[in-house]
Amino acid sequence: MEKWDDNKAWFLVLPVFLVVAFSAIIPLMTVVNYSVQDIMAPGQGIFVGSEWYREVLHDPRLHEAFLRQLIYSFTVLAIEIPLGIAVALTLPSKGWSVSACLVLLALPLLIPWNVVGTIWVVFSRPDIGLAGVTINELLSIPYNYTADPMDSWLTVLVMDVWHWTPLVILLCYAGLQAIPEAYYQAAKIDGASRWAVFRFIQLPKMRGVLMIAVLLRFMDSFMIYTEPFVLTGGGPGNSTTFLSQFLTKMAIGQFDLGPAAAFSLIYFLVILLLSYIFYTVITNLGKGVAK
Amino acid sequence: MARIVLDDLAHSYRPHPTGQDDYALKRINTVWEDGGAYALLGPSGCGKTTLLNIISGLLIPSQGRVLYGETDVTRLPPEKRNIAQVFQFPVLYDTMTVRENLAFPLRNRGVSPADTATRVMEVAEALDLVSVLDAKASGLSADAKQKISLGRGLVRSDVAAILFDEPLTVIDPHLKWQLRRKLKEIHDRFNLTLIYVTHDQVEAMTFADQVVVMYDGEIVQIGTPQELFENPEHTFVGYFIGSPGMNLLPVTVDGETAQTGDSRIPLPPALAEKARAAAAAGATLTLGIRPMYLGLEDAGTGRGVAARITLVEDQGDCRIVTAAMGDVTVKARVPEGRAIPSQEARAVFPPEWTRIFADGRLLK
Predict the structure, then answer these.
(1) A201 contacts in B (CB within 8 Å)?
(2) Are B85 and A189 in contact (CB < 8 Å)?
(3) Which residues of A touch B56 (CB under 8 A)?
(4) Which domain holds residue B61?
(5) CA atoms within a 13 Å half-sphere pointing along the CA-CB vector of B95
(6) Does residue A291 have a pLDDT over 60?
(7) How is this protein positioned relative to the membrane (chain A) (predicted)?
(8) CB–CB of A188 and B79 under 8 A?
(9) ipTM rounded to 2 decimals
(10) Among B238, B271, B300, which residue terminates a domain?
(11) What CATH number is attached to the domain comprising A73?
């Protein structure tokens, strides 16, 4: 095959380039532009360099939101990953019940996220919600997610577990199904206990899917916005204001475009860093497995 | 212990089998003697792995019994039987070292650490694994991994039989003969019963004292490789064993000759009489002769049957000649150095090697 001497083929990329430019690059550059200006009114902005970045990074409310976000993400992981593995272990491996279980489990994943929030708003209401009334009347535990910070945290956590554990279950189930039967047969002949089978066969072989599950859940929970916003709107006071909502409040609520733009870039870089780690781990994992 | 008896065994994977076709194993009755090396040979889908899994306890048969010595072990789980199984691809515990892999079955049975260590060392020496004992099991080559799988079976002192399910499938060809030799050494040293499932007849013939040929869920013949070659009990055995397989020609018997088309093949009188009796009882007759014994001579000699040579394939140490005798095709194996007639030839059927099958079964 001949090598083309001229680069006319690049013109074929032009339409895609234009689309990406208008939908992604130009808006991103606009944000960068805002982040280095102090905007008094539309059209009036003074260049301030990195002042917004320094101010945002030193903002104590940002630190609080960041801490809340970290606690939230790690708690979510600590609950969802073991729960997902445990449920995946109990699922059947063949027959019609497999499809039935998988479909039922996947239903929470299919619900639009603001609808998830709304479902839990009604479900947890102390006056008319099924859970709210049960806890308050039947179990006599005072529960009000709009008034009490602890209650609102718990409700947001339970909602996330309900919504996203099925993803972990499905991933772990796929990982488990990939283990050939011969491993279980050999373990039987070796006299291995159920725990030994889990520890030495199932868990090591699920390493790949678990890594995907952990990183996906961490990234998604780090960026979470819709469900807590619909459920608590940030919580009583600031108690369930996570990072993304903090940013939105700043940008849209207070219309402080400068610091909001700066913070959104920082947020973007954090997510980019996590995605890069994700990508590197997954591709190196593939190499390790191939060896 | 390890005299394994299969009593009226049959197995169907369907919960409610209706006909013979629903059964993966039909009517197995055999005895596997203690200390023997058996090969279970047959084409894919004939039920070899099913039979192996029933013997090892990974599968409970829908009918019949499995006896170890005098004890009925049909429903006994595999870890309580004195067997070990080596699978088609290496099955290891990836997170453990080789030493821990070998020690695993003993630790699960509560053997003391001192005894475990001695036993592991003994088996590692027998299998030439001492140099890699402390390496991670997952990083080794395929043949080392299969040796570790074998080692996990040998390490238990109560194991009396080892079952192999096509274990050399993933091994490089030049390492296969090394592993086979190692298996023979193990057999002689530990005096175990070995049952080796394979669809490769060369492997079966070189490994086993007795070959069990299976076809379509039934055991067709058990015998030494020699017996299988010279006196196949069934046309399937004749066809499957040997490369190329036995020449099988549909014939009718008239007097003391077998006839196919225009060809007349002389038969020994005793065999001819039995063939006539079988034909009178309504059986279809097939004549079989191994390519090795079929003679090819020049057209001028007048002996044997007229044949026209259609193809000569040179295989290095011999040549496979395909010839047409009227409507039927036969193959002959001619050693290197012997001349082959150019086109018109005579196919000579030595009476002592000519076999007649009635309805697929050998007439004796």
Answers:
(1) 93
(2) yes
(3) 189
(4) 4-238
(5) 12
(6) no
(7) Multi-pass membrane protein
(8) yes
(9) 0.81
(10) B238
(11) 1.10.3720.10
